[in-house]
């Protein structure tokens, strides 16, 4: 049944598709780029369809190549998991999570103790980066927690929660803001569309004329820094209801006019289809859904 499958060519294709480069795939497989190119040419001939577009200084998957990669990558993951389960001396499960520094520091890390207690055999590594990682290309990432309005086609995931933005400050700053224009704390986001005009929208909805009164605006590059500034009493911050939750629970921050908020986007946990069956990933998805309030899985879109 499987005797005619070109296994070496399929392995070369999977590596090249994931890495987006014949040269990098060659280094991973300890062969020459020419050998990788020949294997992929042979696979294309065997299939009768092109798998890559050869462009100047890069290669790009065709539609057929995308379909094959998604199926093949998941199948190889399943094989790897089966082999790992048969080893007499199994190492502890390893799990790499990609998310933003702010989400890691303000929501995820304070709750991870519960995950470690339930799964002491899993070693978890956080990869914190504001850049969006292509999970199909970077196999070192098991699961990513992302924020935004757009769906993530071709990925398996769960929606964790929607957020809104409201105004928070230290108890002293909240009390003073009822009588005088407070300093305002803002964030220069890497994805400015998600935060742009936030203070203007909040002030318009609240009927506050702080911006017209030339309020001092203190800007930071990360929500973590902005919340720390608010905790230190440097002003009021417009912040995510998700990221501020721990500071509210600890009494470090209080809402100012809690009835006023503006909509945000959604947080989702995502992985390459098939990877959700990997035991550490499956365990983290289950824990994360519970920690976020019982989110339900969604099919890959």
Q: In a nutshell, what does this entry contain?
A:
By secondary structure, the protein is an alpha/beta fold.
How would you describe the overall organization of this protein?
The chain folds into two domains: 7-86, Arc Repressor Mutant, subunit A (Orthogonal Bundle); 92-301, D-Maltodextrin-Binding Protein, domain 2. The protein has helices spanning 7-19, 22-29, 33-47, 63-86, 101-118, 171-177, 198-206, 223-231, 245-249, 279-291, and strands at 52-55, 58-61, 93-99, 122-128, 143-148, 156-169, 184-187, 217-220, 236-240, 254-256, 262-271, 297-298. Residues 294-301 have low confidence and may be disordered. The protein is of the alpha/beta class and 301 residues long. The strands form two sheets. Strands 3, 4, 5, 6, 7, 8, 9, 10, 11 and 12 form a ten-stranded mixed β-sheet that branches. It is elongated, with a radius of gyration of 24 Å. It comes from Pseudomonas benzenivorans.
What low-confidence regions span 5 or more consecutive residues with pLDDT below 50?
294-301
Strand content: 15-25%
CATH architecture of the largest domain: 3-Layer(aba) Sandwich
CATH fold-type name of the largest domain: D-Maltodextrin-Binding Protein, domain 2
H-E string: HHHEEHEHEEEHEHEHEHEEHE
Shape: elongated
Strand tally is 12
Count, helices: 10
Largest sheet: 10 strands, mixed
Radius of gyration computed on alpha carbons: 24 Å
Category from helices, strands and their pairing: alpha/beta
What's the CATH class of the largest domain, please?
Answer: Alpha Beta
Q: What integer is the average pLDDT?
A: 85
Q: Number of domains in the coordinates?
A: 2
What is the helix fraction of residues, given as a range? 40-55%
What is the first-to-last residue Cα distance?
31 Å
């Amino acid at each position: 049944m499987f005797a005619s499958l070109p296994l070496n060519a399929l392995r070369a294709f999977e590596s090249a598709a994931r890495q987006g480069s014949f040269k990098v795939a060659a280094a991973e497989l300890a062969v020459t780029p020419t050998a990788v190119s020949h294997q992929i040419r042979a696979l294309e001939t065997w299939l009768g369809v092109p798998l890559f577009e050869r462009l100047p200084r890069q290669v790009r998957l065709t539609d057929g190549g995308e379909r094959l990669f998604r199926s093949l990558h998941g199948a190889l993951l399943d094989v790897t998991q089966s082999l790992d389960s048969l080893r007499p001396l199994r190492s502890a499960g390893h799990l790499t999570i990609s998310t933003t520094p702010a989400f890691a520091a303000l929501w995820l890390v304070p709750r991870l103790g519960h995950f470690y207690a339930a799964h002491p055999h899993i070693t978890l590594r956080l990869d914190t980066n504001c850049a969006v990682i292509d999970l199909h290309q970077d196999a070192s990432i098991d699961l990513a927690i992302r924020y935004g309005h757009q769906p993530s086609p071709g990925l398996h995931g769960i929606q964790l929660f929607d957020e809104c933005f409201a105004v928070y400050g230290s108890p002293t700053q909240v009390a003073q803001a009822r009588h005088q224009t407070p300093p305002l704390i803002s964030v220069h986001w890497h994805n400015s569309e998600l935060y742009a005009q936030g203070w203007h929208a909040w002030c318009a909805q609240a009927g506050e004329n702080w911006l017209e009164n030339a309020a001092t605006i203190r800007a930071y590059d990360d929500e973590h820094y902005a919340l720390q500034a608010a905790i230190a009493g440097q002003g009021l911050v417009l912040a995510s209801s998700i990221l501020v939750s721990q500071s509210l629970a600890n009494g470090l921050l209080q809402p100012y006019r809690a009835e006023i908020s503006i909509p945000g986007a959604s947080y989702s946990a995502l992985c390459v289809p098939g990877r959700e069956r990997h035991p550490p990933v499956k365990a983290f998805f289950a824990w994360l859904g519970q920690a976020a309030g019982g989110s339900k899985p969604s099919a890959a879109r």
